Amino acid sequence: MAGNLSNSAGPISSLTRLQALNGVFSVFKKEGPTSADVLNALKEALLREAGVNNPNPRKRKRQCMKMGHGGTLDSAASGVLVVGVGNGTKMLSAMLAGSKKYTAVGELGKATDTLDATGTVTLEKSFEHITSADLEEKLKSFVGDILQVPPLYSALKKDGQRLSVLLKQGHSVEAKPARAVTVYSISLQDFSPPLFTLDIECGGGFYVRSLVDDLGKALSSCAHVKSLTRTKQGPFTLEDVLHEDQWTLANVLKILQSCPGADQTIEAHSKASSATNTL
């Protein structure tokens, strides 16, 4: 584990350890902030602990601590957000393509423009005819390799800008073409009309919001996502995450899945001793 790294030449500063981090770990993203907001708050917490004054990771010109996340979660969603630091950012592509699990609460009878509860209701239809057996039967058609149209409000880009940003600016945006995605399993956990709860395991590029929207249509009604939690991404589960009050270097070192060469990186940073307090 990276937490056991030491240096025979003497104590290693928090800043040196921070600059030498290489690996992946996971944090808990709560509802509200964007995934980028969470990443920047994490950076700020670690930099502040390391003694960097007035850290501003969005505008810092020299980045000694490289960090990224392995898959955007919607602002309204919560759950596992995988973080790569240092050379660990090169491991994130595998996280993007790997298996993910979600728990989604859907609401029947209302469709929204964002396909979730943050949007404006665009359609209301009756749902009293729908039974749990109907729902379970329709879910079968969404398992396996399927085609799915991504939501208009998404992190996908057109001409370098996110579709969601273009829509909020009043631009006209066309839906992206349907693309192949993989759903390993879906199970109905609860049915209390108009609400229903699904557990979903899927591959990369899959949108739970699109699934719930398509499911509502398949049931001759409509639906949107009421709440969404990512419970697993790659090897990381909700049991592995660091919550905001746990964002310290010591805790990151305890759970970091390190890249090869972490010892040598620490040693190089320590010997260089020219680590500055500007990142």
Automatic annotation (TrEMBL):
The Pseudouridine synthase II N-terminal domain extends over 59-208
Query: What are the residue boundaries of the tRNA pseudouridylate synthase B C-terminal domain, all occurrences included?
Result: 209-253
Looking at the UniProt entry, the stretches that span the membrane are: none
Q: What is its EC number?
A: 5.4.99.25
User: What NCBIfam families would the database entry show?
Assistant: TruB
Described function:
Pseudouridine synthase that catalyzes pseudouridylation of mRNAs and tRNAs. Mediates pseudouridylation of mRNAs with the consensus sequence 5'-GUUCNANNC-3', harboring a stem-loop structure. Constitutes the major pseudouridine synthase acting on mRNAs. Also catalyzes pseudouridylation of some tRNAs, including synthesis of pseudouridine(55) from uracil-55, in the psi GC loop of a subset of tRNAs. Promotes the processing of pri-let-7 microRNAs (pri-miRNAs) independently of its RNA pseudouridylate synthase activity.
Family statement: Belongs to the pseudouridine synthase TruB family.
Q: What name has this protein been given in UniProt?
A: Pseudouridylate synthase TRUB1
Query: Which species?
Result: Mugilogobius chulae
